Structures are given as structure tokens and as C-alpha cells.
From TrEMBL, chain A:
The keyword Zinc does not apply. It comes from Papaver nudicaule. Residues 596-617 are annotated as: Disordered. The lineage of its organism: Eukaryota, Viridiplantae, Streptophyta, Embryophyta, Tracheophyta. Residues 762-879 form the GAE domain. This is AP-1 complex subunit gamma.
Automatic annotation (TrEMBL), chain B:
Keywords: Cell membrane, Coated pit, Endocytosis, Membrane, Protein transport, Transport. It is found in: Cell membrane; Membrane, Coated pit. It comes from the Eukaryota. One of its GO terms (molecular function) is clathrin adaptor activity. It is a peripheral membrane protein. This is AP complex subunit sigma. Residues 1-141 form the AP complex mu/sigma subunit domain. GO terms for cellular component: AP-2 adaptor complex. GO terms for biological process: clathrin-dependent endocytosis; intracellular protein transport. The lineage of its organism: Eukaryota, Viridiplantae, Streptophyta, Embryophyta, Tracheophyta. It comes from Thalictrum thalictroides (Rue-anemone). Pfam families: Clat_adaptor_s. Its main location: membrane. Belongs to the adaptor complexes small subunit family.
Length: 882, 142
């Protein structure tokens, strides 16, 4: 009985579902049907099972759950008639897939059907197997399929061939069993069998190197002949498409030849003639012909070099590119991308056309063309290409701007011939599409600006102008804010005018206006406001006349709901109001940021040790505030994320020194949280665990005690209460640093005591801690009986070179389990040739004395004849038991 | 390799969905929704190819029906475009002037035709005549 001709219930159901006017109605109908089918399932109704399953498939297509029908498929497959089996297999393919365990149960039925005497039933089983078989089924049923490849019926052979593809994809080990039967299929005359055989061979080559060799040796000649026959075959109505006999067969043949010819000169050689024939003789006014040409070009590009053929191929692509059909142009762009590796020069010739494609209305073409242009850019054409792309940026779709911006930035960064051009282009992109520019791109721009000292004035003036017209582009605003903060005085005084510039008159208050707008505009992101606040602090020192107004703006954020802004506002206000004497030192211009370090850092995270060398190129002036800045660079503190507000002394000090939110462009990306940055700092300096940040701030200070008068004295006040030499600025600084915990002062006090009482502890042999051509450092040790964990180290520095060292600065870092305090050095000038020395006392407390040995990293910097010198070292030879 | 074939009307109702790679049901619905959105509003002058996740969809519109095939990125787009057309010709021949309703009421036959045309995500037969004849033989088995 045919379920679809008699008792037309499936039709009825589809009708009633189609008649539904609302989704709710439809759901009701489906619910009713499903209920009826469920009850039929539970009653084990045989007569209507396949009709029910057919209904269920329709319901499934509408998107309703139908899992309860899965077992019905298996029952139908197990029944004897063709109509039941047909619906059963169809249901199996629609309702189940290879991941369901139920599939295991069907393996046996499929096996029986593969051996069935009725070839239509064998066909059903092969089809289901080919579409959904799992690896297990593939293993179990591979012998049957292999046997069916030799079946007398071509319909079975072609199905078995495609089924084999699925099997070898699931279980590549089985590939060798299929090699020789597959090779036999290539001699077939029946197009269906031939085309599936070709596909099977292609996939075998992909999974097995052995198969590739086998087919290359045995079949290349034969395949070339088959292709010749097909190309030259007379009109065959059965396979004719647009005057070409079976383009699909052409394409499959060309594809397999491509795989066989790739990397094999002999095979490539044998197919040259026929490829040339296909490339020249194929009709190009219909899609089918172009599809063949496209495949042929790909094959020519992949097989071993034949310059004549390649010229032919490139010419075809040129024709494709100028075709009016978008599809053809699309594939041409696709192909040119591969051709660029073979013949970049030939592709360059089409640059103008490709550039036009970037502006196409069709997003698919635009995307391809942009990728291609990106590959085409080189030093010689970067300027005109970038100009074209930036011009287009102005008019492009919003959705395309993201891709386009990323590519332009990448091109500019990669090929920029000079800094001024780089800056100009980036400013254009920022003004046009600043909202699409990624953080690392504008960070990189700031690094470049920072390094181009002759362009500072020009850049800040350009940014000022750009801000007036494109103030809504967030990234532009950030760069502008940073530059105005750093180079504000160049903006107002027209310093460093270039010939190409028009002079502008900007007053100090105009510059402050920009920052005020950014602060007050409700669309500004919080990070931008934070940057702006710091820029304001910087300007307050550079523009004394505007100081009061700036303070007013800063104070307005005192009540900000954003904790970061609120805290900075209060701190900065106090700096402006009460600490005029240190302000200018605090807000000095950022030191030049090291480009190589930055670009090295961008791809990955920064190892703490690697960064130590950064300091080498940094120009470190006197004073704690400034010496801390390079440290920050060094440590890659994140800045565009607001650091979590913290009341601990360490953080506060960071912020005070302009580390926190200031746009330190050396960070590797916004993802890095400032907390992490602090950790890195702690790691490098290895001063206790994060909670013990008091020590950290202490160390930071003591590192350069010999340089900055106000700070060193502050440090002394802090640690050595016996020495009182604080200049006026120190006392208020104490207030700022009031969160330093008493434990620190306690250790310092005991230290001071110790110093006063003299060394009376155990004596260890002195060691040479560090020696280079130019410098020697000796450590001598003393212990205090009362505190066995603490060791006093007296470091003696000797200059081995023939030049005096000035601004000598010694820094040390220790592992986390050790606490370190550096005392003031005896001098900061080290005479040449060992004619004198500097001594400095270090106090180390090893909390794991006896378990872990002491270790220390050293960093010494100094000036020789005005040039920077830097020495790095590690001390591992401490005496045992310290 | 073809990863899936979709036949949808302008409203996004799926009339045929054949997957050659295993996907969760929910994922299938998502795919159908996304593909429909990608193709439905494209200008007829545009390419028939859209990038879809890591693959590409080759689609062709016939009256109110969209035939979409998702294929590997390295596959020959033009060939699959021709392939869709051949499938439509077969349907047209089989139903003599096919319309959407034929496909709705005879969906199981459409699947049967497709299974004679494409298997395991690869082309099985390129002759329209062979497939129509085969369908005739299969109908006799019912």
C-alpha cells in the first residue's frame, strides 16, 4: 500500500499546517499530530508507521523536536518492503546523525541491505551509509562497500565510490584497501561512475601519500587521455551544458591532475599539452566554460613550472578581472591571490582594477579585493595605494570600515618610508575612522610620535586641528589628549614649525579647552577622561597662567562616580594646590619610548626579565619621579584600563609618579590589568608578596636616593629617623605617603640602630658580586646576632675603566621570599681606574633562611662622558646560610 | 565538499535541508537563519557567493526560492553554481514546471532526487536524463 496515494493523511496534515494563520495555531496542529504519532508509536502500529514517520519528517523540517521517532526509523529499515525501507532510511538521514548511539543498532540492518538482491534497496543502504556513517560503521561495513565497487550495476558502483570517500575520511587507515578498485573506476565510460571514481581518487590522495604515488604512477597518462577525449568529444545531449560536454567531469579531471602534478615534474610535463588546449579552446561566454577555465588556471598555478602556461593563466585571469559578471570577477580576485606567489609582477599590473574592486558595492568582492591589495603593497607603491584606500575610507560603508581601517593601519605600519608620512596617514585614519582603530594601533602611533622629536610640534598642532573637526573619534581624541599633555607648550608657541605647515595661533586656554571638552563631554569614555585628567595636571605646570582654571576643572571631578577619576582628582588637586615645588618634576615629559621593545612586545606578553634591558636606551634624568618612569615602561604597566583603586602605599606612589592612568604607550594592550603590572614590578624587584607593598615603595625610593634631594631626604626621614635633613618639601610628602605601614619604619629603625651600634654579627668572607671590563662590585657581609635572618651587605663599587662615572645609580632585585632595603650610597660619582670607590649598604632579610639561598639581580647605570652606561648582572655566589 | 544544502523561501521557511556534516539541531536552526539573512537581501547583480563562517555559501535564487550550498573555501564556486542550476532543472523536469508547493507536498521525493544527485557531499550523477529515469524506476518500486 502506498502511504502517499491512499488515505492522504500526510497531505492533509501539510494542508492543515499551511492553513494555520498564526504560529500558535500551527503549534496546536503540530502538537495534536505529534500526540497521535506518539500513541501510534506506543501501540506499535505497523500499517501506518511509514506514513507517521513521513509526517514526523515534515514536522522536523518545521523545527519541532522529533526524537521520539528515531526508533521508528530503525523498525522501518528492518522491515522487508522497499517503500518502508525508503522512508526508514530517509528518516535515518534526517533525524539522526553519526553521533547518536542509536546508529549502532542500525549497522546490522544496513549490512543485510548492502547484500540484498534488490539493487534499489542496496542503493538506499549505500546512500544512508555515505551520508551519515560513523567511524565504527565505516570499519564494520568497509568490506561490503569495497565489494560493491565492482558491482555490475553502474548505479551501485557510483554510490559505492562516494560511500568509500566517507569511509576513508572517517578511517584513513582503510585507504589502501580502496586504492586499486578506485583506479579501476578511472577507466569507466559511464560519466556518473567516472566522476565519482575521480572524486574517490582525489580524496584518497588527500589522506594517503601512498595512494598519491600509486595514482601518479599508474593513472596520470590515462587521465590525460580521458580529459582529451572529453574535451574533444562531439555533442552529447545528455551531458551538454552550454555547448560543453559535462563541465563537471572536466573540473573533476582537472582537479585530480592538479594533485598528481603538484610537486612532480614528469606528471606535470605530461599534462601540459591538454592544459594548454583547455585554456585556449574553452568557450567563455557561459558560466560553465568559465568554471572549467577557473579550474584549469588553478591547476596550471599548482603544477610544476611551465612559464608558457603561466602566462596563459595570468592572461585568463586578466580577462576574468575585466569581465562584467561579478561572479567571474570574484573568482579572478580569488585566483590572483594564489598567483601572487607565482608571479607577483603580473598581478601588480592589475593593481588599478583591483583597487576599483575594493570600492565595489558587493561586500564579497570588496573583501577579496582588499585582501589582495594588502598582499600587493610594497615600498614603492605604498604611498599611492594608501592614499586611495584612505580616500575611500571617507565614503565606505560603516560595516566595511572596520576591515578597511585595520588593513590601512597595518599597511602604514609595515611599509612607512618616513615618520612624518606615518604620522600624517595615521592622523587621517584616526580622523576618519578613529572609532574603528584598535588600541594597539594608536599605542604604536604614540611610540612613534614620542621618538620623532623634530615632529612633536607639528604633530600636536595637527592633532589640535583634527580634534576640532573629528572630535567624535575616540582614538583620535586619546592621541590628541596625550600629545597636548606632553607637548602642550609646542602647540601654543608654534615650536618646530615645518615648512609645509600653516602657522596657527593657539592660546594656552585653547589647549585647555580641548581637555575640558573631553572631560565634560558625556560621550567620552572613562579611559579618555582619565587620560585627559593627567594631561591637565601636566598642563597646569606648563601653563602657569591657566593653573587656577585647570585646578577648577580637576576639582569638578572630585565627586565623580568613577572612583578612579574621583581619586585622581583629589590627588591632583592637592598636588596643584600644595606641592608647587615638586609638581614640575612630577609632570616632566615622558621619556622617549623605545620602539624596538614596543614592537617586540606587541605580539605576546612581556617576560619580566627581558624588559630589564629597556632601560639601556632610556634617558634617565635625576630624581625619583623620573627614574620611576622608565621603570614603568620597563614593567609594562597597563594604563588605559583604570587601575583598581587601592589605598596601599605602593599603588599610590605609582599613581603619584604618573604611572597609573597616564598613557604610557609601552603597554602591550588594554587586556593587561594594572594589577598584573604591579605584580610584574614586584617580580622584577622581587620584594615580598603583593600585600607587602610598603617595602616596594620604600625600595623604589631608595633606589635613587643619591640623586633627588627632596626625595632622598624623604626616604631618610622615613627609614632613618636619626638623620634629619628634610627640606621643606619633604614633610607634605610624608602626608602623601602616609599609608606606609609601621612595619617598614620598624625594620628601618632597627636597621638604623644597627648602623649606630656597628657590625658585631657573624662575619662571612667577602665575595666579588659582579665584575665586567668596566666595573667591579664587592659584597662584604655582616650579621646581627639578634636577627639571624637579616644580613647587612656592604657593596663596594670600583671603576675599572679610564673614565669617571657620574650619576652612578645602583639597583637590586631579590626573590619574593627576601626583603631588601638599600641605604644611601656614599657618593654618585665613581672616579676612574679604581681611584676611589662608592660604598652602599643593603639590608636583606631572608624569610626562608636555610631553605633557600639568597640570590640577587643587579642593575647599575651611570654616565660616562655624558653617555649612558648600563650594567646588568646576577649574584648567585652568596655564602651559604645567609 | 558540500557541507549542507538549503532550500528556503523568501520568508526564510526551510523547504529542504540536507546536512552532510553532523550538526546539533539548534545549530542547524541557527545556520538556516543566518544563511537566509545573508542571501535574502543581496542585490541580484552581486556575486552569488557569500562567505559564511569558515566556508562559503553559493546561492541562487529562482522566483521566491533560494537554493544555497555551503562548500569548502577551496571549492570551485562557478561549478557549484552550475550544480544548483542542474538540480533545479531536474526538479523542473520531474515535477514539470516545479513550484514551491510541489516541493512542500512532495518533500520526501525532493530528498530522494537529491540523494540520486549528491551523495556524501559530492556530485553523483551529471546527467539529468539518468536521474529522471532512475526516479521512474524507484517510483515503480513503491
Amino acid at each position: 500500500m502506498n502511504p502517499f496515494s491512499s488515505g492522504t493523511r500526510l497531505r492533509d496534515m501539510i494542508r492543515s499546517i499551511r492553513a494555520c494563520k498564526t504560529a500558535a495555531e500551527e503549534r496546536a496542529v503540530v502538537r495534536k499530530e505529534c500526540a497521535a504519532i506518539r500513541s501510534a508509536v506506543s501501540e506499535n502500529d505497523n500499517d501506518y508507521r511509514h506514513r507517521n514517520l513521513a509526517k514526523l519528517m515534515f514536522i522536523h523540517m518545521l523545527g519541532y523536536p522529533t526524537h521520539f521517532g528515531q526508533m521508528e526509523c530503525l523498525k522501518l529499515i528492518a522491515s522487508s518492503g522497499f517503500p518502508e525501507k525508503r522512508i526508514g532510511y530517509l528518516g535515518l538521514m534526517l533525524l539522526l546523525d553519526e553521533r547518536q548511539e542509536v546508529l549502532m543498532l542500525v549497522t546490522n540492518s544496513v549490512k543485510q541491505d548492502l547484500n540484498h538482491s534488490n539493487q534499489y534497496i542496496v542503493g538506499l543502504a549505500l546512500c544512508a551509509l555515505g551520508n551519515i556513517c560513523s567511524a565504527e560503521m565505516a570499519r564494520d561495513l568497509a568490506p561490503e562497500v569495497e565489494r560493491l565497487l565492482q558491482s555490475r550495476d553502474p548505479n551501485i558502483r557510483k554510490k559505492a565510490a562516494l560511500c568509500s570517500i566517507r569511509i576513508v575520511k572517517k578511517v584513513p587507515d582503510l585507504a589502501e584497501n580502496f586504492m586499486s578498485p578506485a583506479a579501476v573506476l578511472l577507466k569507466e565510460k559511464h560519466h556518473g561512475v567516472l566522476i565519482t571514481g575521480l572524486q574517490l581518487c582525489t580524496d584518497l590522495c588527500k589522506v594517503s601519500e601512498e595512494a598519491l604515488d600509486y595514482f601518479r604512477k599508474k593513472c596520470t597518462e590515462g587521465l590525460v587521455k580521458v580529459l582529451k577525449d572529453v574535451v574533444n568529444s562531439p555533442y552529447a545531449p545528455e551531458y551538454d551544458i552550454a555547448g560543453i560536454t559535462d563541465p563537471f567531469l572536466h573540473i573533476r579531471l582537472l582537479r585530480l591532475l592538479r594533485i598528481l602534478g603538484h610537486g612532480d615534474a614528469d606528471a606535470s610535463d605530461s599534462m601540459n599539452d591538454i592544459l594548454a588546449q583547455v585554456a585556449t579552446k574553452t568557450e567563455t561566454n557561459k558560466n560553465a566554460g568559465n568554471a572549467i577555465l577557473y579550474e584549469c588556471v588553478q591547476t596550471i598555478m599548482s603544477i610544476e613550472d611551465n612559464s608558457g602556461l603561466r602566462v596563459l593563466a595570468i592572461n585568463i585571469l586578466g580577462r576574468f578581472l575585466s569581465n562584467r559578471d561579478n561572479n567571474i570577477r570574484y573568482v579572478a580576485l580569488n585566483m590572483l591571490m594564489k598567483a601572487i606567489q607565482v608571479d607577483a609582477q603580473a598581478v601588480q599590473r592589475h593593481r588599478a582594477t583591483i583597487l576599483e574592486c575594493v570600492k565595489d558595492l558587493d561586500a564579497s568582492i570588496r573583501k577579496r579585493a582588499l585582501e589582495l591589495i594588502y598582499l600587493l603593497v610594497n615600498e614603492t607603491n605604498v604611498k599611492p595605494l594608501t592614499k586611495e584606500l584612505i580616500d575611500y575610507l571617507e565614503v565606505s560603508d560603516e560595516e566595511f570600515k572596520g576591515d578597511l581601517t585595520a588593513k590601512i593601519c597595518s599597511i602604514v605600519e609595515k611599509f612607512s618610508p618616513e615618520k612624518i608620512w606615518y604620522i600624517d596617514q595615521m592622523l587621517k585614519v584616526l580622523s576618519e575612522a578613529g572609532n574603528y582603530v584598535k588600541n594597539e594601533v594608536w599605542h604604536a602611533l604614540i611610540v612613534v610620535i614620542s621618538n620623532a622629536s623634530d615632529l612633536h610640534g607639528y604633530t600636536v598642532r595637527s592633532l589640535f586641528k583634527a580634534f576640532q573637526t573629528s572630535g567624535d573619534q575616540e582614538s583620535l581624541v586619546r592621541v590628541a589628549v596625550w600629545c597636548i599633555g606632553e607637548y602642550g607648550e609646542m602647540l601654543v608657541n608654534n615650536i618646530g614649525m615645518l615648512d609645509i605647515e600653516d602657522p596657527v595661533t593657539v592660546t594656552e586656554s585653547d589647549a585647555v579647552d580641548v581637555l575640558e571638552i573631553v572631560m565634560k563631554r558625556h560621550t567620552s569614555e572613562i579611559d579618555t577622561r582619565e587620560m585627559s585628567l593627567i594631561a591637565l595636571l601636566k598642563l597646569s605646570s606648563r601653563f602657569p597662567a591657566c593653573s587656577e582654571r585647570i585646578r577648577d576643572i580637576i576639582v569638578q571631578n572630585k565627586g565623580s562616580l568613577v572612583l578612579e577619576l574621583q581619586q585622581r582628582s583629589i590627588e591632583f588637586n592637592s598636588i596643584v594646590a600644595k606641592h608647587q615645588n615638586i609638581r614640575s618634576a612630577l609632570v616632566e615629559r615622558m621619556p622617549v619610548l623605545d620602539e624596538t621593545t614596543y614592537s617586540g612586545k606587541r605580539p605576546g606578553t612581556l617576560p619580566a626579565t627581558g624588559s630589564t634591558s629597556t632601560g639601556a636606551s632610556l634617558n634617565i634624568p635625576n630624581g625619583v619621579a623620573k627614574s620611576a618612569l622608565p621603570l614603568v615602561d620597563l614593567l609594562d604597566l597597563g594604563s588605559d584600563d583604570a587601575p583598581p583603586p587601592s589605598s596601599s602605599g605602593g599603588d599610590f606612589l605609582n599613581d603619584l609618579l604618573g604611572i597609573g592612568v597616564s598613557p604610557t604607550p609601552s603597554m602591550s594592550g588594554s587586556s593587561k590589568s594594572p594589577t598584573k603590572g604591579t605584580d610584574v614590578l614586584l617580580d622584577l624587584l622581587s620584594i615580598g608578596t603583593p600585600p607587602a607593598q610598603n617595602n616596594f615603595s620604600n625600595d623604589l625610593l631608595s633606589m635613587s636616593t643619591n640623586n633627588g634631594p627632596s626625595f632622598s631626604s624623604l626616604e631618610r626621614t622615613q627609614s632613618l629617623s636619626s638623620q634629619v635633613s628634610s627640606p621643606p618639601g619633604a614633610a607634605p610628602m610624608m602626608d602623601l605617603l602616609d599609608s606606609l605601614s609601621p612595619t617598614v619604619s620598624m625594620t628601618s629603625n632597627s636597621l638604623a640602630d644597627m648602623n649606630l651600634t656597628g657590625d658585631n654579627g657573624l662575619v662571612h668572607q667577602p665575595i666579588v658580586a659582579f665584575q665586567s671590563k668596566s666595573l667591579k662590585i664587592m659584597f662584604s657581609f655582616s650579621k646581627k646576632p639578634g636577627s639571624p635572618q637579616t644580613t647587612l651587605i656592604t657593596a663596594t663599587f670600583t671603576n675599572l675603566s679610564s673614565n669617571d662615572y657620574t650619576e652612578f645609580l645602583f639597583q637590586a632585585a631579590v626573590p619574593k621570599f627576601v626583603q631588601l632595603q638599600l641605604e644611601t650610597a656614599s657618593s654618585n660619582t665613581l672616579p676612574a681606574s679604581g681611584n676611589g670607590s662608592i660604598t652602599q649598604t643593603l639590608s636583606v632579610t631572608n624569610s626562608q633562611q636555610g631553605q633557600k639561598a639568597l640570590a640577587m639581580r643587579l642593575r647599575v647605570q651611570y654616565k660616562v662622558n655624558g653617555e649612558e652606561g648600563l650594567e646588568l648582572g646576577q649574584v648567585n655566589n652568596f655564602p651559604h646560610g645567609l | 565538499m558540500i557541507r549542507f544544502i538549503l532550500l528556503q523561501n523568501r520568508q526564510g521557511k526551510t523547504r529542504l535541508a540536507k546536512y552532510y556534516v553532523p550538526l546539533e539541531e539548534s545549530e542547524k536552526h541557527k545556520v538556516e537563519y543566518e544563511v537566509h539573512r545573508l542571501v535574502v537581501n543581496r542585490d541580484p547583480k552581486f556575486t552569488n557567493f557569500v562567505e559564511f563562517r569558515t566556508h562559503k555559501v553559493i546561492y541562487r535564487r529562482y522566483a521566491g526560492l533560494f537554493f544555497s550550498m555551503c562548500v569548502d573555501i577551496t571549492d570551485n564556486e562557478l561549478a557549484y553554481l552550475e550544480c544548483i542550476h542542474l538540480f533545479v532543472e531536474i526538479l523542473d523536469h520531474f515535477f514539470s514546471n516545479v513550484c514551491e508547493l510541489d516541493l512542500v507536498f512532495n518533500f520526501h521525493k525532493v530528498y530522494l532526487i537529491l540523494d540520486e544527485f549528491i551523495l556524501a557531499g559530492e556530485l553523483q550523477e551529471t546527467s539529468k536524463k539518468a536521474i529522471i529515469e532512475r526516479m521512474g524506476e524507484l517510483e515503480k518500486q513503491e
